[in-house]
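Q: Here's a chain of 302 amino acids. Please give me its 3D structure as tokens.
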Amino acid sequence: MSQLEADVATKAKLLVVLLAFAWGLNWVAAAIALREMSPWSLRVAGCGLGAITLFAAAYLTGYSLRVPRGEAKHVMVTGFFNVASFQILSSFAQLSGATSRAIIITYSMPIWATLLSRLMLGERLDGVRMLAFSLCVAGLAILVWPLFVDGFPPTVYYSLACAVGWAFATVYMKWVKATIEPLANAAWQLLFGFLFIAVGTFVFEGVPHLWPLQTETVLAILFVGVFGVGLAHFLWWAIVGRLPTTTASIGALLVPVVGVTASMIMLHEHPTTPDIIGFVLIFVAAACVLLQPGGRRPEPRA
């Protein structure tokens, strides 16, 4: 490897860490904003800012945002599941339960992507994937079983729906053999996702409540939109173009670690013993899938 290549790889690894903090802290910022805003209003503002940020970044860096003929409908489908439904469901998950728990369950996504790949793409489940699935099921069972003692907590269903929707969007784009460039895909997904959320807001809530807001809430919205959605998407595609799949995937694995730790420090949450055990098992399961040779990279996540 030349010195130039080594420098590029080193910078990309630093971007992995930055990305993990952008995505991980995004959950905490959303939790802070949700103290004053509804999920619909927050996501209208956050996705709108994120789309503007990503389109501006693409324009300034000269990336092409062209959508191949016939693929706009596929980007709309993934924009609905990967952006709109994820953003709204994750917000309701945070409102109905601990943010740290929502993060842990949501980041079981690689396992559901593996199963959907078997069903939709015919990819075989090897020993590593079967082990990962078993660990994930065990982790989820340990985590959610105590919660069902007092009823059926909505946060579990919202978080699982986030994970499955994210996984479906990831596998769907491979199933339709989409050829759109990754950065263009992310930008248009954000725009379509924003439009879906905007329509949902007017249907279920009316005019979004965006003002007046406390300074803390405004700063949280800016972080969610500019850093957690826009910049994070841009960083992800910059990373995957410079690093091997395995190294880039570490960024996805670091997100729940940063998110859960930040929730404990900044939101004063205290994960229970089942939460911690479930987190470890799900994390190991995701690592088995993401870090094995030829492992699948997840779609970018806000």
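Q: Can you summarize the key feature?
A: Residues 8-291 form one domain.
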